[in-house]
Amino acid sequence: MRIAMIGSGYVGLVSGACFADFGHEVCCVDKDPRKIEALNRGEIPIFEPGLAELVAKNVREGRLTFTTNLPEAVKHAEGVFIAVGTPSRRGDGHADLSYVYQAARDIAGAMDGYTVVVTKSTVPVGTGDEVERIIRETRPDADFAVVSNPEFLREGAAIADFKRPDRIVIGTDDPRAQGVMNEIYRPLYLNQSPILAMSRRTAELTKYAANAFLATKITFINEIADLCEHVGANVQDVARGIGLDNRIGSKFLHAGPGYGGSCFPKDTLALIKTAQDFEAPMRLVETVAAVNSQRKRAMGRKVIAACGGSVRGKTIAMLGLTFKPNTDDMREAPSIDVITALQDSGARIRAYDPEGMQAAGAMLTDVEYARDAYDCARGADALVIVTEWDMFRALDLKRLKAALAEPVVVDLRNVYRPDEMRRNGFTYVSIGRP
Q1: Which of the following is catalytic: 27, 228, 263, 307?
Q2: What is the pLDDT of residues 72-129, one digit of tens each?
């Protein structure tokens, strides 16, 4: 089938490349000519394992193209996906839908024949209704349907998630549109991925509910970790003990410095605002968002305590900057709050991240960037593991200790075993472990 993907950011580029790999003819559209020029040169604007190779393969085989010409891409498409950004609106926390609505107007003016318009962007309940109204108002004669098809991609594992999904959610009451969506996703039938058909509003809410629930699991185990530290229990054993219960599950039960990224912070906030608008407040999610925000800053205080109560004039080495490994995404990363808290207390910061230093440079000031983990540790008064990149999981502990001015390690991801670190002469602090 012919597909137009409006927006060539993280979701649009991954989705477009995967659809092309299924055999569809995909044209990715973006208003930024520099981004399109770079993509046409084979330059990928984000770091996602396997994406560069997937894009190059499908461009080479003629199934994937990039353009700024939206009318031309939409005119020939049977399915048009809206995959533009929906950031938190400055001032009130609602999702900013201006890009979605502008895309709807642009699509309306370019459609030719029956077209299924699909909201792939994460949008609040009722957005599909407004997209349909905008298109109908702009083109009263148009033959189209608006479908909700939320994405459930994990940064760092997005291609695998797209090709082997837990489920595919399709929100529409239109049998004709459902048929088009079934055809688009037909290559996944062999994987027996369940396609869940539901109303458009239900699909929109399903995305927010999923992210809010996962954010709640993370925040819950983080609070259990705090309790473990006070009572002398081990949060990792607690997580295993509850995670083996099939009703709970083991995923997202890893204690750490709090959640970040492009989805959980803004989506929990948008869900809170939507619930308030409909006078159905979500007190649990409100608390989750508040606790997570406080936790990230509290990690700075944890580092200060490990350094004897003061970091003024001290150099703190930070391993990992991105909100999670296998991405270059710095949005809402816990490292930002930790670094800010330490700098406010007078510390000098040296940092290393294999992919995130360029993005971090635009967000953080007065940070020295290192060549590798050992260069980062050189002469530092403490080392903090903030992001659990694989390369940080098997550091040469003797070399690390020799590089540090003081053998203090604060492990915010519980990468190492406390007994191993003690044997190697470190003052070691982790999360929720004795």
Answers
A1: 263
A2: 999 999 999 999 999 998 778 889 999 999 999 999 999 999 999 999 999 999 999 9
pLDDT of 193 reads 80
Rg of the chain over all Cα atoms, to the nearest angstrom: 23
Helix (H, G, I), strand (E, B) or coil at 239: helix
Distance between CA atoms of residues 224 and 243, nearest Å:
13
List, by residue range, all CATH 3.40.50.720 domains of the chain.
Answer: 2-198, 296-429
* CA max distance for the chain: 75
Question: Is residue 196 helix, strand or coil?
Answer: strand
> Is the whole model's pTM more than 0.90, yes or no?
yes
* Residue 191 pLDDT exceeds 80: no
Give the SS3 label for residue 379.
coil
Helix, strand or coil, per DSSP, at residue 405: coil
DSSP string of 148-194, one letter each residue: E----PPTTSHHHHHHS-S-EEEE-S-HHHHHHHHHHTGGGGGGTPP
Amino acid, single-letter form, for residue 222: N
229: left (phi over 0), alpha (psi -120 to 50) or beta: alpha
Helices (H) and strands (E) in the chain, counts: 17, 14
Q: How far apart are CA 150 and CA 147, in angstroms?
A: 10
> How far apart are the C-alpha atoms of 175 and 359, rounded to whole Å?
44
Report yes or no: 371 and 394 within 8 Å, Cβ to Cβ. Answer: no
Active site residue 263: yes
* Contact (Cβ atoms closer than 8 angstroms) between residue 270 and residue 124: yes
Q: For residue 128, what pLDDT is reported? A: 98
Task: Specify whether the CB–CB gap between 263 and 218 falls below 8 A.
Answer: no
Task: Tell me how far apart the alpha carbons of residues 314 and 331 are, in angstroms, rounded to a whole number.
Answer: 27
For domain 2-198, give the CATH number.
3.40.50.720
Closest CA to 8 of 38, 328, 21: 38
Taking alpha carbons only, the member of 74, 75, 81 closest to residue 146 is 81
The structure tokens 């989506």 sit at: 267
Cα angle 225, 230, 231 (rounded to 5 degrees) comes to 95
Q: What is the pLDDT of residue 36?
A: 97
| Superfamily of domain 296-429 in the CATH hierarchy | NAD(P)-binding Rossmann-like Domain (3.40.50.720)
Instruction: At 358, give phi and psi (nearest 5°).
Output: -65, -45
For residue 352, which phi and psi values (nearest 5 degrees)? -140, 135
